[in-house]
Amino acid sequence: MTGSNEFKLNQPPEDGISSVKFSPNTSQFLLVSSWDTSVRLYDVPANSMRLKYQHTGAVLDCAFYDPTHAWSGGLDHQLKMHDLNTDQENLVGTHDAPIRCVEYCPEVNVMATGSWDQTVKLWDPRTPCNAGTFSQPEKVYTLSVSGDRLIVGTAGRRVLVWDLRNMGYVQQRRESSLKYQTRCIRAFLNKQGYVLSSIEGRVAVEYLDPSPEVQKKKYAFKCHRLKENNIEQIYPVNAISFHNIHNTFATGGSDGFVNIWDPFNKKRLCQFHRYPTSIASLAFSNDGTTLAIASSYMYEMDDTEHPEDGIFIRQVTDAETKPKSPCT
Amino acid sequence: MGRKKKKQLKPWCWYCNRDFDDEKILIQHQKAKHFKCHICHKKLYTGPGLAIHCMQVHKETIDAVPNAIPGRTDIELEIYGMEGIPEKDMDERRRLLEQKTQESQKKKQQDDSDEYDDDDSAASTSFQPQPVQPQQGYIPPMAQPGLPPVPGAPGMPPGIPPLMPGVPPLMPGMPPVMPGMPPGLHHQRKYTQSFCGENIMMPMGGMMPPGPGIPPLMPGMPPGMPPPVPRPGIPPMTQAQAVSAPGILNRPPAPTATVPAPQPPVTKPLFPSAGQAQAAVQGPVGTDFKPLNSTPATSTEPPKPTFPAYTQSTASTTSTTNSTAAKPAASITSKPATLTTTSATSKLIHPDEDISLEERRAQLPKYQRNLPRPGQAPIGNPPVGPIGGMMPPQPGIPQQQGMRPPMPPHGQYGGHHQGMPGYLPGAMPPYGQGPPMVPPYQGGPPRPPMGMRPPVMSQGGRY
User: Fold this and answer.
1) DSSP code, position B58
2) Which of A32, A259, B178, B267 has its CA 20 to 30 A from that of B47?
């Protein structure tokens, strides 16, 4: 089912996968959080699980602070930091509701968590300790770091941009340009904007600069839709990941497809084969050679029989991820 | 729009009668839609330029400008942006617009709903609701496949298919009439929506513009009438219109009959593929885009009808200060809004409630076990020493439920929210820890967020 450039990880989690993240400086290690309450670290080339630690509830997101520390949070409301070398765990803090997102901002050296308790909390990773709690208008669904800014996507299609160095006020309050619930936001590597996906098979490319000339450049497109028997099935676009080098991005949807897009030429570069079930998370390695694809049923159609969840590791080529020369 | 009188109006495309905000955008549109080679997709600058290119490079002749409305397909006219448009067509256009503005003034009083639509004009590069090729690349902003490909009336995207049967008979006879409709989708949209909404006036308005200028065409209309007549809802309208027509149009009832035709059906398929959602969310739809360009801050209100949850959350949002017990509890217990989905031709693969997939999954019983209860110490894994003793594994849970004093019912988040009041100061008498905020701690010793240290140590019976 998979080609020689792709394989499935051994010892996958025993329930759905919520998030996959590569180590910041190597494509060797992949951190995986799961609904089976575990967080696992995999040695990708060796295709083996190196380490596993537990939460008491499903883990919804994980992130590397640095190559040796993993942070994770989930339904048990707890934010944990785990030292991957010593296997030591540290309960850093909690939210009042499940933690949905965990991200690290290298520029400001702070960890950020977003929760369904409608707050974003910042954490100093060195101590580690809480460095502030910031109210959001709605439950936080997604977070992305852009330079020294934090882009927060909440329920109600709201998007807030915070300046991590000045959290006294919200830098920008926006509304998603898509009409449906926001699923995922990822910032462009050039810090000019972000990509936002919704549950309705659509992705928007937006810019942070509020000036009208820049705002005119924003656009959106439909994707992850399948036509079957004259009925168009529209799938949520759950995952977005940027390729560090080419500035192209991959999207994964509940249709089980992964597409790679070139945002500047506005073209789709590639679509991989269909995966067994919904794509829950995507992660490019920092060197852009590898893409981790979490294929995990997301209960879009309730609790039903579904193909096995798994994590696929795919070696990507330039042909798949590099922009072609621009057309006129 | 730096010219004096010659233009006077917003730039518009002579080939398809669409309106644009800016001449630059108009030119981009022309290059992409009318001057693009169908063989190699090269964009030329003018009609003749395209013809020459096809001849020289592909050895093919073309005789009509692609995507142009009938009557405007002349490949030999050298038109670039607004330059080169024959004077008489300019005049016609001006007249049309004048009539339209009269129309829209009349309309303004009537039509209060959706002026917005997602299919926001050429000028907007924000969003391509193209009904086609989701699997291909996505189409650059200037190309709006849903619209231009269809010349004239049929070209009116989603909302107009129903118009076709009644209209085509008119078209050949009066191309200039069509312009009354399509130019500037914006305008057209207004008309369309008002079709749905109410309007007997509107359709009349649609026909009006051509009226004075094209008397000879009127006779052409009756042939168009019969088809619309059988449509449901038309008869009543026809009558009503017949009544009002004289007052409005001083035209024979003939035109009225044709116009109502599209009305009943228009409501539904207004934007079939352009995000079926839009059919339901006409109002909020546009406001998503408009406010974005103007004042994002004001855009909290727009999605009223379709997403009540948003409304209520925006309402409650304003009162939110910091994360406190009350708010989360309120949001949880309120019923989530349901998504207004799709039309018959599309299906949104997502549960009906407008909550995230993760929230929905978290509500499943299997994920509710051993979640922290209010006042409960955070359960670490074995390494967290003493707690291991207190928190018996899963089997112990039911018993915990019975134990804990503030035992809220199973909530969305494992009851944690409802329990919040439980660990505000006072709830934990021995420990009344003030700040709900988590004090820094170094893991290791089990330090529950709520400062229930001793109880943690003592035993698990508490929870």
Assistant:
1) I
2) B178
Name the residue among A123, A118, A128 with its Cα closest to residue A103: A123
Among A227, A224, A187, A217, residue whose Cα is nearest residue A202: A224
Q: Are strands A202-207 and A193-198 parallel, antiparallel or unpaired?
A: antiparallel
As a whole number of angstroms, the distance between CA A44 and CA A39 comes to 15
Each residue's pLDDT tens digit, A231-265? 899 999 999 999 999 999 999 999 999 999 999 99
The Cα–Cα gap between B284 and B288 comes to 6
**Which of the four pLDDT bands, split at 50, 70 and 90, describes residue A38?**
very high
Write out chain B residues lying below 8 Å of A230, CB-based.
345
Query: Average pLDDT, whole number, for chain A?
Result: 93
Looking at this protein, which amino acid is placed at residue B122? Answer: A
Q: What is the mean pLDDT of residues B303-329?
A: 38
Measure the CA angle with vertex B38, ends B34 and B42; round to 5°: 75
* CA–CA separation, B364 and A206 (whole Å): 35
Whose CA is closest to B25, among A221, A177, A213?
Answer: A213
pLDDT tens digits for range B228-258? 444 444 444 444 444 444 444 444 444 444 4
User: Is the sign of the CA dihedral B41, B45, B51, B56 positive or negative?
Assistant: negative
Instruction: Of A296, A315, A273, give the one whose Cα is nearest residue A20.
Output: A296
Q: What is the pLDDT of residues A252-305, one digit of tens each?
A: 999 999 999 999 999 999 999 999 999 999 999 999 999 999 999 999 987 788
When scoring B27, B118, B357, B368 by the number of chain A Cβ atoms within 10 A, the one with the most, hence best to mutate, is: B357
Count of C-beta atoms within a 10 Å radius of residue A255:
24
CA distance A191 to A205: 12
Measured CA to CA in angstroms, residue B12 lies from A135, B94, B391, B397 at distances of 47, 11, 73, 70
CA quadruple B432, B436, B441, B447: dihedral positive or negative? positive
Q: Does the pLDDT of residue B309 top 70, yes or no? A: no
What is the 3-state composition of chain A as percent helix, strand, coil, each rounded to the nearest 5?
A: 5, 55, 45
Q: What gap in Å lies between CA A56 and CA B200, rounded to an integer? A: 63
| Rounded-to-integer distance, Cα A241 and Cα A236, Å | 15
Q: Among the ranges A94-98, B172-176, B337-341, which has the highest mean pLDDT value?
A: A94-98
Interface of A with B in 157-196 (CB under 8 A): 157-158, 172-181, 183
Task: Give residue for tokens 């290690």.
Answer: A29
- Where are any strands of DSSP class E within B283-411? 346-348
Euclidean distance between the first and final Cα of chain B, in Å?
74
* CA nearest neighbour of A327 among A275, A261, A265, A274: A265
Residue A103 in contact with residue A91, Cβ under 8 Å? no
The answer to whether residue A306 neighbours chain B at the CB level (below 8 Å) is no
What pLDDT is recorded for position B76? Answer: 86
Q: 3-state class of B212 per DSSP?
A: helix
- How far is residue B276's CA from residue B347's CA, in Å, rounded to a whole number? 9
Find, among A36, A32, A24, the residue nearest to A8 by Cα: A32
- Which pLDDT value is given to residue A168? 93
Between positions 90 and 129 of A, the ones with CB within 8 A of B are 90-98, 100, 116-119, 127-129
In this prediction the ipTM stands at: 0.93
Give the DSSP letter of residue A317. Answer: -
